[in-house]
Amino acid sequence: MIKKYLPGAETPGLNSKIISELKSLRLKKNMIERGLFIIEGKKAVYETLSDGGFLPNIKYVLLSEALESDYLEKISFINSNKYVKIYTVSAELFKKLSGDETPEGVLCVSAIPQRDAVSLIGDAEKRIFILLDSVNDPGNLGTIMRLADNFGVSAVLLGKNSVFEYSPKVIKASMGSFKNVAAARLDEKIFGALLEAARSQETALIFPDIRAGIPLREAARRAGGEGFRKIIIVGGSESHGVSDDQILKIIEDAACAIKARIPNYGGNESLNLSVAMGIFCYEIALALNS
What we know:
This protein has 290 residues and is α/β, with parallel strands linked by helices. The protein has 13 helices and 10 strands. The protein has helices at residues 2-5, 17-24, 28-34, 42-50, 69-74, 91-97, 117-122, 138-150, 168-173, 188-199, 216-225, 245-253, 273-289; strands at 36-40, 58-64, 85-89, 106-111, 128-132, 155-158, 182-185, 203-208, 230-235, 257-260. Helix 8 (138-150) runs parallel beside helix 13 (273-289) and helix 10 runs parallel beside helix 12 (245-253). The longest helix is centred in the last third of the chain and has 17 residues, at 273-289. Belongs to the class IV-like SAM-binding methyltransferase superfamily. RNA methyltransferase TrmH family. Residues 19-107 form the MRM3-like substrate binding domain.
């Protein structure tokens, strides 16, 4: 059936380079070494293939022979695309290659996009950034990328202790937002750009602290009403906060660092990081756009 809708599809052998590569791309070191990552799931793959700006990054698509005809028809447009190779394997083999317990039968392999985070930080039109330390849960990071996309965040920047931003579970949880929001790990250049921005009187750093005297809404209104050109939202581990030396240096040197608390009307001590970041982004985007 796949050949009916995608006549260019090929079937790789069990010992082929494609099968070997897909197995290897479940490990961070191989993703970094090869500069490739996996996008899996019907919605994520379809939206990625439909994105003309991102499409040149796609190396190939892998389909399960069990895929239903309506989805094959939906993606049949890629058959004429010069960038994308199409491969098909049995449902049994696809399940072995998939990172999901109940795979949807479609994935694609993409080059890791080259995002210039330094230029984004220096761009006067880019106003909101998220800076994270010790995000160990890929679902949390993917969700933060998704909400960042929703609230107009220009980049999600990560300290050295966080999960790899292009791991398959992060990409899946981002629901396609990985294409729209730059994600990058702090290196010397990005750290320098953030430090320079933080030292500016035109930048505010805002980060959660349950002991802060200022509620978040008040802090967001202050940041939105005092003419700050950039706002950097800092988040850390739910249990340990921020411990990364570079991020602590950025906070220490910031011209304006605002601790803010999310009001607690119940009995819990803290919120999941992605939930907290969602509330922070909402309040800050609301203050900037009011």
